[in-house]
């Protein structure tokens, strides 16, 4: 059985066939998905989807959304975490973090929201799901100041040294479609180098499509799409297994155990 630790099932790309997406995932052996929120407006949506389909969810404000968020949204997050603190399907605060890749974002505002959400996670006793894009050192600086109970560094593509620091702070690292590209040398090297207690699997569906779903610019212009979905996770797991020299059974055991360790409320959910 597989766990997709990061899937945006609420995304509009799934509006036409969301139930079928979940069914295909289950048929492929993906027994659990974690649905992270990205802004206050979709808090209720991810929670309802998690309960409707027997999945898990996280609540947070994504760094790409902080510029349009109100300051009061941090209060709304605090209220939501308090209201649903006894909900076993609420497994983390996320997706939160810092994005130093997309130009034009207000870094000071990102930092303020990141620090505030770390404090809310700490106070709620919940791990965090971190967005990491060219921001690993800044994220680690925040984690040194605010002690949270671990979590997942999603779609990690930092250095081996940074990976080791995240692991030392109780974090798993998320690996998915990116490692299926032979030219993704750093991600593939990290997938091999990290300790067996570190990797978890994720799709980030509908985003970060694996190599076999990739479409060229010409194909996209012709109307072909490359929507990722959680049913692709076992094939991504096979890539990780091949890179590490694990069997699929070993890969499932390691990654599921790691997911349960960093997101303890997943224990007993499947």
TrEMBL record:
Q: Which domain of life is it from?
A: Bacteria
Q: Name one Pfam family in it.
A: TatD_DNase
Provide the alphabetized UniProt keywords: Hydrolase, Metal-binding
Name assigned to this protein: TatD family hydrolase
Q: Does the keyword Ion transport apply?
A: no
Residues that hold a divalent metal cation 1 according to the record = 6, 8, 95, 204
Keyword Metal-binding belongs to the record: yes
**What protein family is recorded?**
Belongs to the metallo-dependent hydrolases superfamily. TatD-type hydrolase family.
Q: Which PANTHER family match?
A: D-AMINOACYL-TRNA DEACYLASE
The lineage, from the top, is: Bacteria, Pseudomonadati, Pseudomonadota, Betaproteobacteria, Burkholderiales
Q: Which GO terms describe its molecular function?
A: hydrolase activity, acting on ester bonds; metal ion binding
Which residues are recorded as binding a divalent metal cation 2?
A: 131, 154
UniProt xrefs under SUPFAM superfamilies:
Metallo-dependent hydrolases (SSF51556)
